[in-house]
Predict the structure.
Amino acid sequence: MSQNSDIVVDRAKSQWSDLWKKEDYWAIWLGLFILAVALCVVMNNRPSLDAKSGPLLATIAQEKAKPIKTIEWYEAKADLKKVAGRDVPFLKSVLGLLATPGGWHANPLDSLYLSKEAADQANAKIQPKLDELKKAEAEALANAKTAQAAAANAMYKDEALNTQATAAIDSWQKAKGATGKLAKKIKKPFNRYGSLIGLGVGLGVLVTIGACFMGYNPVKFFLGFIGVYVVCVLAQIMGKQDVMKGWGLNAEIWSIIIGMLIANTIGTPKWIKYSAQVEYFIKTGLVLLGADVLIYKLMAIGIPGIFVAWVVTPIVLVCTYIFGQKVLKIPSPTLNIVISADMSVCGTSAAIATAAAAQAKKEELTLSIGLSLTFTAIMMVVIPAIIRACGMPEVLGGAWIGGTIDATGAVAAAGAFVGPKAMQVAATVKMIQNVLIGVTAFFVAIYFTTRVHKQEGEKVGAMEIWHRFPKFVLGFLGVSLICSIICSNLGADAATILIENGTNKVGGAFRGWFFALAFVAIGLTTNFRELKSYLKGGKPIILYVCGQSFNLLLTLLMAWFMFYKVFPEITAKI
């Protein structure tokens, strides 16, 4: 038997033990555990949630039969949004524990504690204007009720009265929106000290359980994790500073900056570096991300969104990789493919999956993520500004944002700058694009195993490809499939209440912390001297800029063509 055959047999024998010894699988188990607990709690409280939503859904159905959207329809819709699984007492407490530091301007400690007196003082500047808006809203509502009553008395058969009622109700909704927007700026007292300490201990115990099975010393790992977590909290605080946040210097960027400063000045202490496990943290976050990729949500904008995400993305990825190999002649194919996937698919999520599939070096992944975060911060400010300056339609702008900006959170923020419809389309397109994480990892594993890394005369079988394939991607896809099936059985309204605004809110909060920990770990384990050789000649930066420029042009063209030329009827319904 050949040496390669012996290796394949040994790997086959180790598959079962890998289930509890490898970080890929522990990422799956931790993600499934978090989501399963949240799902059980939500489902256990479903009767009380159904009791609240039932009458509201009945009102919506009854009012929907009328020729105009009535006041009662809008009020029932607004009240229905307040019925959410996240407000179940246990999950509400968990989400309170998972809360990140608040915003601050001059004193960083303001992000951890805000007294009632300080909150009242800050709100005193807003309250008079808010009172004015509330008064205007009340007047608009009174006018809307008068106009609607006139239309109702005519049995909604007088078109002129219907038009007047609709206009009055729209004015009320506009006034209500203005009130709600300002009301969000009202500050509430909070104390994050206790919750952040509790969260650090809780997350530490959770990840240490898996680390113990993977062969780490549990005491050393837990203590090292607390060190990583403290740096993570510091980065979260820095990312909430008003001015820096406005510049796009968010917590993710600060996580890497602070980590790198420590690593390249005083040096990362060995006891902290022991627990700075980048892939363990980020893979767990990616498994949790799968819960947000719901099939029925993907179909919300139909075929146009699929074309933007699933046709443009692979074209850009392949073309960028070929450009890097043939034109720029980047020495490392693994660095090339990780940057190409990071830029074209969905940022850091795709980068970590692709790096695992291609067996890229840690420094290559770090460089790719650094480029991604830097350009994402720029694009999330610049692209919405371009869209608004050009007067671009919200649907087109949203699709452009969703297909080009890398990070999911940045996509939602950039879409919100343009408008609510743009945010909806952008988030959905990005969700559709996220599906390609697993597909990309699969094909990269095949290509690099059979072509790039294949030795002369070597026979590569399915077992070798399976060994190379990042298993946590199966968790990502599995969670997506399970949650999609559950949602389809629940129906759209129940799925929104129980899953999207329940289970997934908890999973999303955990995911945010795991990603933040991963970025800190990247910084703490990165040496500038190690990155220097990869930046030689600026080729990685040129690759990213050229690839993203191609991505921006092709995505905009495809979005315009699909949403406005091929499927305008779908666009009209969004």
The CA atoms of residues 402 and 411 lie 6 Å apart. The mean pLDDT is 88.
